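Input (structure):
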């Protein structure tokens, strides 16, 4: 990968801005993007920051010890629940926390950073409170079934300079009932970094059914609607996750514990130089991608705006590596809109599906056929795309055992890692010069069989783009405290596997050295 000199940041950003949206679309060949080389290693003087952070004492007290879901809603914990005013925040900035208690109750907030910490999974940052909690009004049903809370804040929290970038958990505890839930947000930074870990929080929001059947998939006709005309807001608590398995720790934390923490936990255990961001940061601040050597897409990274697509595409053409350790990535096209009080990027709405129509996949989902299908093909970004039947599971079967990706893994041609692929994946590889298929096989599910394809292709600056083709990649890396393994869905995930760890280390170490 081309190295960027920090003094030339302005020139790099200017070059990205002049790159042009039209040049990002499939089939359009652009001219070279001007970048400025630096002979030094990409990592900054803070490259040991994550290793040093994880030497701090950890605790398992970040886990919820008493949770309960209202059976009438299926997803919410009305005893105590809350949300943050922003998906991510920088040091020195302020974020507001909004909490409701029913019944009214005093409550406390304990703040933790989620990470490795010698296997404990978190570090306590602060104890906040006690607060006088009250029952705040459920939001009215607005246009496009929008449920947008306008709760009073209990706290304006200023982010301290020594709070390291990461995913932060506010554990809420009602002193009346003892019930607990989370508020989750990301602290970001602006340093040069080897790896930028992009949390898939637009997808968290899309599947959030709080307070009851009000996700992007609910339109009063079906529980898995896939058309346009539904809005969902970040200004509401995350209800318990609604798919695949019963995971109590998802109450207030989106999909972080499902597919993403196992990757972050493993990366931090190895001391990789990593910083964290939100999907919304990729949408709104695409130029910041260029501070990283590699962008990491994780877990279930389904929903992208056109700005996200274009920003990642421009960064790849500018020399950024990308590791899509994810599945069903960049499938749904979002419009991202401001809140009713004007704060940017707080409401999302599905407006299209990336890529061409797919007879098998499109027929599985209610109203997908009504979408215009004018968005670009996500395979041209990822290396392969979501194809029918989209869902399913499979073994991760090696096709190129001599490839550097599989060095020291012991993998043989045709050998598979059981249950690693699922529950959504990518098939239909793109026609990109130099693209290699490194793993491929047949998926199985109640909806039929499909073909997943794991790929790697070269970018124009000697950079690389890897596609794992699985939401479940993290399951093969680690099993953090509180982790719940996904239920079988055509294949059964088997948990941490030395081969997956070696393959991922080969990948990240190779990208770091580019």
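Output (sequence):
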């Amino acid at each position: 990968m081309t190295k960027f000199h920090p003094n030339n940041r302005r020139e790099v950003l200017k070059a990205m801005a002049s790159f042009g949206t039209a040049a990002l679309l499939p089939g359009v060949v652009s001219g070279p993007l001007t970048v400025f080389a630096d002979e030094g290693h990409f990592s900054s003087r803070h490259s040991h920051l994550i290793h040093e952070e994880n030497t701090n004492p950890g605790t398992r007290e970040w886990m919820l010890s008493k949770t309960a879901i209202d059976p009438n809603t299926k997803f919410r914990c009305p005893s105590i629940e809350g949300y943050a005013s922003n998906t991510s925040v920088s040091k020195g900035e302020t974020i507001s926390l909004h909490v409701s208690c029913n019944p009214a109750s005093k409550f406390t907030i304990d703040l933790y950073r989620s990470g490795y910490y010698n296997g404990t999974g978190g570090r306590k940052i602060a104890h906040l409170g006690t607060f006088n909690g009250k029952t705040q009004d459920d939001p009215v049903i607005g246009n496009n079934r929008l449920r947008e809370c306008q709760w009073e804040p209990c706290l304006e929290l200023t982010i301290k300079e020594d709070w390291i970038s990461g995913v932060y958990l506010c554990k809420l505890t009602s002193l009346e009932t003892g019930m607990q839930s989370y508020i989750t947000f990301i602290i970001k930074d602006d340093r040069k970094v080897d790896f930028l870990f992009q949390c898939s929080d637009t997808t968290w929001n899309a599947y959030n059914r709080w307070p009851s059947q009000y996700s992007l998939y609910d339109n009063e006709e079906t529980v898995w609607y896939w058309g346009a005309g539904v809005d969902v807001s970040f200004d509401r608590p995350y209800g318990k996750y609604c798919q695949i398995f019963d995971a109590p720790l998802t109450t207030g934390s989106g999909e972080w514990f499902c597919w993403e923490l196992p990757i972050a936990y493993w990366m931090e255990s190895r001391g990789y130089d990593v910083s964290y961001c939100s999907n919304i940061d990729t949408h709104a601040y695409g130029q910041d991608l260029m501070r990283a050597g590699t962008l990491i897409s994780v877990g279930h990274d389904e929903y992208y705006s056109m700005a996200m697509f274009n920003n990642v595409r421009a960064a790849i053409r500018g020399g950024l590596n990308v590791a899509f350790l994810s599945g069903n990535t960049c499938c749904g096209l979002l419009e991202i809109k401001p809140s009713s009080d004007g704060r940017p990027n707080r409401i999302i709405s599905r407006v299209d599906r990336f890529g061409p129509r797919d007879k098998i996949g499109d027929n599985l989902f209610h109203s997908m056929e009504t979408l215009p299908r004018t968005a670009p093909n996500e395979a041209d970004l990822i290396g392969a795309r979501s194809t029918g039947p989209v869902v399913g599971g499979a073994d991760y079967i090696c096709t190129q055992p001599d490839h550097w990706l599989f060095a020291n893994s012991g993998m043989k041609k045709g050998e598979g890692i059981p249950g690693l692929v699922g529950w959504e994946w990518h098939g239909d590889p793109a026609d990109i010069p130099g693209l290699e298929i490194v793993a491929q096989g047949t998926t199985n599910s109640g909806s039929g069989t499909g073909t997943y394809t794991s790929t790697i292709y070269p970018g124009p600056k000697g950079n690389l783009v890897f596609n794992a083709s699985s939401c479940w990649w993290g399951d093969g890396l680690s099993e953090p405290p509180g982790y719940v393994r996904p239920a079988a869905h055509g294949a059964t995930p088997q948990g941490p596997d030395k081969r997956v760890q070696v393959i991922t280390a080969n990948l990240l170490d190779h990208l770091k050295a580019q």
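Notes: Confidence is low (pLDDT under 50) at residues 1-42. The CA atoms of residues 386 and 426 lie 4 Å apart.
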